[in-house]
């Protein structure tokens, strides 16, 4: 009985390994060519987005190193990947709130990259218009506004915790135009970055 249990555990481990590590040239070609003849033969998940698709999905081709192969949709779901809204690998729509959660998580982790509606739509496997409308419905603000919010909060942390220049900080948070960065920061916090840093440090001295 114990031997059978150990055998089942070992088999499960092997299956888990093979299910996510059997990328072949044939499968990769199917993904980049959106080959529908491979649908239901395998599914692929993209680690950076947490989304999985059919091989025929028309979404932008992912980086090969970020792709994980699954033999069934259930395996992808069990590894916490969520179905693409465009190709619907489970033949069901991903709920809007789950979709937008994936998008906000991506922005939170990748706000230093060049992000706009077009790139976010491609990453999230949806049209820019639909993403904009759905994001605002769920979050109350647009994807662009949310991205700015994340970037400016990161900038505020840099101002408080480092001696980086304003130009360096603007680049670090994904807003390479420092003049535009200063304008956005002042609109959000009521002070320029330099004023904010001085004010915060003055307050720290008074508390000492």
Automatic annotation (TrEMBL):
PROSITE patterns: HTH_ARAC_FAMILY_1 (PS00041), HTH_ARAC_FAMILY_2 (PS01124). Keywords: Activator, DNA damage, DNA repair, DNA-binding, Metal-binding, Methyltransferase, Transcription, Transcription regulation, Transferase, Zinc. GO terms for molecular function: methyltransferase activity. The keyword Transferase applies. GO terms for biological process: methylation. InterPro entries: Ada-like_dom_sf, Ada_DNA_repair_Zn-bd, Homeodomain-like_sf, HTH_AraC, HTH_AraC-typ_CS, Me-P-triester_DNA_alkyl-Trfase. Its cofactor is Zn(2+). The keyword Glycoprotein does not apply. Pfam families: Ada_Zn_binding, HTH_18. Residues 101-199 form the HTH araC/xylS-type domain. This is Methylphosphotriester-DNA--protein-cysteine methyltransferase family protein. It comes from Lysinibacillus agricola. The lineage of its organism: Bacteria, Bacillati, Bacillota, Bacilli, Bacillales.
């Amino acid at each position: 009985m114990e031997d059978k249990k150990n055998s089942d555990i070992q088999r499960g481990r092997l299956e888990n390994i093979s299910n996510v590590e059997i990328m072949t040239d044939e499968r990769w070609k199917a993904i980049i060519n959106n080959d529908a003849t491979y649908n239901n033969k395998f599914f692929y998940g993209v680690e950076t987005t947490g989304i999985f698709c059919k091989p025929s999905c028309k979404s932008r081709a992912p980086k090969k190193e970020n792709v994980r192969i699954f033999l069934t949709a259930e395996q992808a779901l069990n590894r916490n990947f969520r179905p693409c809204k465009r190709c619907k690998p489970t033949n069901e729509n991903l709920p809007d709130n789950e979709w937008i959660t994936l998008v906000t998580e991506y922005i939170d982790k990748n706000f230093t990259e060049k992000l706009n509606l077009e790139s976010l739509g491609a990453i999230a496997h949806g049209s820019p218009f639909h993403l904009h409308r759905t994001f605002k419905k769920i979050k109350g603000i647009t994807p662009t506004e949310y991205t700015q919010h994340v970037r400016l909060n990161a900038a505020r942390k840099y101002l408080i915790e480092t001696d980086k220049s304003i130009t360096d900080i603007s680049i670090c948070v994904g807003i390479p135009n420092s003049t535009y960065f200063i304008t956005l920061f002042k609109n959000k916090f009521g002070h320029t970055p330099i004023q904010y840093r001085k004010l915060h440090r003055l307050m720290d001295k008074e508390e000492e």
